[in-house]
Design a protein that fits this description.
Layout: H1 4-19, H2 25-34, H3 39-42, E1 43-45, E2 50-52, H4 54-74, H5 81-93, H6 109-133, E3 140-143, E4 148-151
Antiparallel strand pairs: 1-2, 3-4
Length: about 150
């Protein structure tokens, strides 16, 4: 499972690791890759549509992702415990705060980087989509999702 958004976040984090070489690049890139792993079970496909699964509705991809990675790590002999906790923390904290779906606030520099890379990519994608879909000759579009204006020219 590696969608465009995940690749964007990996690329943003890779760049951040060159700007801030004190970040653990391996942890950062692994966390970026795995942060949304729970989405593989959060959604289900039929011949007609993609919809949220019962598990996805009841648990959400953050909890599902934590469980998936935790189970995989158990199957790896001598997996470093501290690394396990860091990777699981990244999954649990990548939405930034509990009201956004995180179990924890980010407490590692790499977790903060992944949270903001995810947030940045989502916001830029939203603005670009709204601009693309704007059906107006006006210079400005007001949108209720962002509670503000977007410059279209």
């Amino acid at each position: 499972m590696c969608n465009t958004a995940t690749l964007n976040i990996i690329n943003i984090c890779d760049h951040l690791s060159s700007v801030h070489p004190e970040l653990d690049r391996n942890l950062l890139l692994a966390g970026a890759f795995f942060h949304d792993i729970g989405k593989i079970k959060e959604f289900e496909m039929s011949s007609v549509k993609i919809d949220i699964s019962h598990q996805g509705m009841l648990e959400g991809h953050v909890v599902i992702g934590h469980n998936i990675l935790s189970e995989k790590i158990k199957s790896i002999e001598d997996f470093p415990e501290k690394l396990k906790f860091k990777l699981l923390h990244i999954i649990l904290s990548h939405h930034g705060k509990p009201e956004n779906g995180s179990a924890k606030k980010p407490m590692l520099p790499e977790a903060v980087a992944i949270h903001y890379a995810d947030e940045c990519d989502a916001k830029v994608d939203l603005f670009l989509r709204l601009k693309r879909e704007a059906n107006t000759e006006d210079s400005w579009l007001w949108d209720k999702k962002i509670k503000g204006h977007i410059y279209l020219k």
